[in-house]
Design goal:
Elements: H1 2-19, E1 23-40, E2 44-50, E3 53-59, E4 68-74, E5 78-79, H2 83-90, E6 102-112, E7 117-126, E8 129-145, E9 148-163, E10 177-191
Antiparallel strand pairs: 1-2, 1-3, 1-10, 2-5, 3-4, 4-6, 6-7, 7-8, 8-9, 9-10
Keywords: Signal
Protein name: Polyisoprenoid-binding protein
Pfam family, one: YceI
Length: about 190
Amino acid sequence: MKRLILATAVAGMFMTGAAFAADSYEIDPTHAWVGFKTNHAGWTKAHGAFKAVSGTISFDKADVTKSTVEIALEAASVDTNDEKRNTHLKSPDFLNAEEFPQITFKSTSIEKTGDKTAKVTGDLTLLGTSKPVVLDVTWNAESALPWDANTIKTGFSATGSFSGADFGIAKMADFGIGPDIALDIDVEAIKK
C-alpha cells in the first residue's frame, strides 16, 4: 500500500511538472510592433502599423510544438502616417473597425524549424472571417531586465502574409492596393 501511495505521488509530481513545462508571458504593449505593407499601384509598398497590441504566449522551451500564442490588435489603432487614410481604413470599405473592433491571431499548431525558429500556424480573424495564416517566427532572446532581476522578458520576431480579398476587403483592388498584405511583427513579452 505504501509503495502504491509513493508511486502515485511520484507520478503526480511528473505529471504536474509536464503540465507546467510551459512558461506564461503577457505581451508588453509598449514593446510590440505589428507592421504591414502592401503593393500600392505598382509604385511602391504602402506601410502601416497597429498601435494597440495585446496578447499572451505560453512558451514551452523543451518542446516548442506545445507552445501557444494569442494576439489581439485594435483595428481603430491603424496608423499609416496620414489621418485621412487612417480614417478611410477604419471605415466599412476596409477594416470596418466599428463593427469588428479587434483583429486576432490564435495559434493552432507549431512546427519547429531550427534552434530558435518555427512555423506558427494560426487562425487570423479579420472582419468576422477566420482563415489559417502561417507565420515564420524567430525567438530572439530571454533575460532579466538590467534594472529589475525579478522581471523576465522574452522577445520574438515574425513575418507572414495573407490576401486581403480572402477576408472580404473588397475595396483593395479599387484603390490599386494588394492583393497580398505582408506582416512584420516584433513583440516583447513579460513572464508571469
